[in-house]
Amino acid sequence: MIWRNAIKDYQLFLKIERGLSQNTIDGYTRDLQKLVTYLKKNEINSSPISIDNHIIQEFIYKVAKEVSARSQARIISGLRSFFNYLIFEDYRKTNPTDIIETPKIGRKLPDTLSENEINELISSIDLSHPQGERNRTIIETMYSCGLRVSELITLKISDLFFEEGFIRVVGKGNKQRFVPIHLNAQKYIEYYIKDIRSHIQQKKGFEDTLFLNRLGKALTRQMIFIILKNLAIKINLNKKISPHTLRHSFATHLLKNGADLRAIQQMLGHESITTTEVYVHLDKSFLKEVVELKHPRSDLNLKK
Fold first, then answer.
1. In which order are the strands placed within the sheet that holds 160-161?
2. In 3-state terms, what secondary structure has residue 17?
3. What is the Cα–Cα distance from 60 to 105, expressed in whole angstroms?
4. Burial of 300 per CB tally in 10 Å (0-12, 13-18, 19+)
5. Which residues are catalytic?
6. SS (H, E, C) 198-210
């Protein structure tokens, strides 16, 4: 078995069996290619079946000098997944990464914007610009529903169920969920569809895509990044933001205003509640208020 064929088969496994997105598959592939490049550069003749833990350890040691602990952990995790796949397919009996220790990394808390910063960002949009109304609708929708950028750019008109107050979102692994949408966001979307999008000549295959560029095609992830970056510069926002910042802000603001963590988990499309729990660590000040307001003994006047 040669590396090229093994990686190609693994990509198909990740796509068909595990239902991962192309972005995730590309990430796994890049890390495997780093290992293949290392083997070629050092003239190490080891196949996916014959490679042992000593070679993997040397590779990780080499990588450790060039990347952060977080990147090391990701690479080890990706390699472990690949070799587990080979074991699953009966190509190997053991996983050479099993005895390799993953570096300890702290939990990275996501960046967020305050409610005032969100308002500032939206207010700074030039609505006289041809794409102004569309851009405002995009930000309102992302912040209203906590969408990933990939979920936003693939959102379809047929996914809008405004009478019920929900939109259908296709998340990671093509898993669908229904997310409530705020009335303001509904209003902006309806206006955008009626008065802006209707004047764009949709290209074939994009007739149902909600947000379109000037050529009548779906927006790219990069375009959403650029829109936000330019708005942040415009209001002199001293923070590095991305589309995910709006998603983090959505979750954080809901939690601070008393939303249930399980409800936020469902809206974000997190498989595990532990992923959602990161938002509890962003601002603990409201936790004290929750105990004071919700604890059954909080209103008792204890006698001394």
1. 160-161, 166-170, 176-180
2. helix
3. 16
4. exposed
5. 148, 172, 244, 247, 270, 279
6. HHCCCCCCCCCEC
**Which residues form the domain of 161?**
115-290
Q: What is the rounded distance in angstroms from the CA atom of residue 219 to the CA atom of residue 210?
A: 10
Segment holding 166, helix H or strand E: strand 166-170
What pairs with residue 156 in β-bridges?
209
For residues 92 and 50, the answer to whether their CB atoms sit within 8 Å is: no
| 13 and 123 in a common domain | no
User: 116-163, pLDDT tens digit by residue?
Assistant: 999 999 999 999 888 999 999 999 999 999 999 989 999 999 999 999
| Same domain, residue pair 131 and 264 | yes
pTM tops 0.85: no
Q: What is the pLDDT of residues 151-206, one digit of tens each?
A: 999 999 999 999 999 999 988 777 889 999 989 999 999 999 999 999 999 999 99
Domain count, the chain: 2
d(CA 61, CA 131): 49
Please check whether residue 110 lies inside any domain of the structure. no
**CA–CA separation, 290 and 283 (whole Å):** 13
